[in-house]
Amino acid sequence: MKNKLVLMAIALLMAVAGNAQKREMRGAWIQCVNGQFQNMGTAKMQQTLTYQLDELKKDGVNVIIFQVRPECDALYESKIEPWSRFLTGVQGKAPSPYWDPLQWMIEECHKRDMELHAWINPFRAKTKGTNVLAKNHIAIRKPANCFAYDELFILNPGIEENRDYICEVAKDIVARYDVDGIHMDDYFYPYPVKGLSIPDDELFHDHSNGIKDQNDWRRYNVNLFIEQFYKAIHEVKPWVKVGISPFGIYRNKKSSPVGSNTNGTQNYDDLYADILLWVNNGWLDYCVPQLYWEIGNKAADYATLIKWWSQHAAVRPLVIGEDVERTVKYADPQNPNQHQLGAKMNLHRQNPAVKGTVLWYAKAAVDNVGNYGTSLREVYWKHPALQPEMPFISNKAPKKVKKLSPLWTEDGYILFWMSPSSKHWESNAEKYVVYRFAKGEKVNLNDPSKIVTITDKFFYKLPYNEGKEKWTYVVTALNRIQNESKPATKKIKL
């Protein structure tokens, strides 16, 4: 019986692995708000992040979502907001020895051919654990622009100046840093606490914009912000992706016929976040609902929710926010001897609208809880993957590479090529994909197992072995959003 279960598990792994995707966002959130880096010091934090990035690269991760603004502060050099206490322990205190974590992370991620998305919390101005704010913090400079709620300070979304302010902060990041994306999570209006009401009655009375229902007015405020934010980012750099990671339930069926068969906090009703409107209006470039529950959860079943999001939010790339620890904590209902990673990955493959996964949180994967990281690197994310296509940003690609040719050098047999000509970011080659096919094998660029590397270099060292076997190498060029050129092909004896 035991051997039979092992064989079944292997068959499931092979089935999922055989259905590997060539384009897939494989992300991981690295958060600071849990205090993991606080008072760590420059050298130790760089050492810790280096180890995490190395392990995540081995796991197949191709996007790092790095928290840089947890409470209207900065883990980067800013003239607008103070240094974060989650870095130095004291808000407004610069790191010593001095460094810029965001700039460092961009360089380290790009070295590893990973994208770096800067993660900001838009309206949260103070977390519960923060007791002292810096003199230049927005809540000190403009206290009337915030409201207090459950030991938090929130920039009131109903105040236009606040929406403008957040957009200016984000534009500053995008203008000065070579980020690949800007990312927001689920904190718009605060999560509801029983017995507490949001203190915005007076503002609603004076600035309702003709909206009669206060809940509709709050949603209207957030909608205005999301549209403004999206346009502001793309005006600065059109290739920078805007991602939003909402809470995992849009609405429950008991609240709306369009809702899911769930029973929990709702984006629309409780957080005033009309995520489907944003998706359908194209006010974001990818959506990462936080489906942190397990398959079989009574209030919010993972299988129910992944199908619901696939049916309702496929106008933009849908990426699943995955809780690593919870996934390995619970048994697969169909196979109690193993945890739920395999079953969840199978659900991803069964829903073609799903274009990837973001891991909550990076350290759990790095620590390899439940062999999660090992399973990624050996099975699910074994082969490299390109980012999902985003034709709504651009459908143009670079021209194909020039002068593809193998040459003997002091360092061995090297495949060289030249970058195609370009006058615009859409046609500029930022990276290259190298494929390899055996003699007689059909050249199929949709097969990710044939990718030997994705690189920003103009060469690839060939695995020469006596020159008796014929191989076909194919090289394509990628632009900043990884639109792919036509192939250049070379037959080589190795």
Biggest sheet architecture: 8 strands, parallel
**CATH domain class of the largest domain:** Alpha Beta
Beta-strand fraction estimate = 15-25%
Could you tell me the CATH topology label of the largest domain.
Answer: TIM Barrel
Estimated radius of gyration: 24 Å
Q: Oligomeric status of the shown chains?
A: single chain
**CATH H-level name of the largest domain... which superfamily?**
Glycosidases
Q: What is the structural class?
A: alpha/beta
Please, what is the average pLDDT? Answer: 95
How many β strands by DSSP?
20
Percent in helix: 25-40%
Number of domains: 2
Cα end-to-end separation = 46 Å
Low-confidence stretches: 1-11
What does it look like?
- With 494 residues, the chain is of the alpha/beta class.
- The protein contains 15 helices and 20 strands.
- The strands form 5 sheets. The protein has an 8-stranded parallel β-sheet with strand order 9-8-7-3-2-1-13-10. A 4-stranded antiparallel β-sheet has the order 17-16-19-20, with no helix packed on it. It has a 3-stranded antiparallel β-sheet with strand order 4-6-5, with no helix packed on it.
Name the descriptors.
494 residues, Immunoglobulin-like, eight-stranded parallel β-sheet, four-stranded antiparallel β-sheet, 31% helix, disordered N terminus
Show the helix and strand layout.
Elements: H1 2-18, E1 25-30, H2 42-59, E2 63-69, H3 85-88, H4 101-111, E3 115-120, E4 124-126, H5 138-141, E5 146-149, E6 152-155, H6 160-176, E7 181-184, H7 201-206, H8 214-236, E8 241-244, H9 267-271, H10 275-280, E9 286-287, H11 302-312, E10 318-323, H12 324-329, E11 331-332, E12 335-339, H13 341-350, E13 354-360, H14 362-366, H15 372-380, E14 402-409, E15 412-418, E16 431-438, E17 451-455, E18 459-461, E19 470-478, E20 488-493
Parallel strand pairs: 1-2, 1-13, 2-3, 3-7, 7-8, 8-9, 10-13
Antiparallel strand pairs: 4-6, 5-6, 11-12, 14-15, 15-18, 16-17, 16-19, 19-20
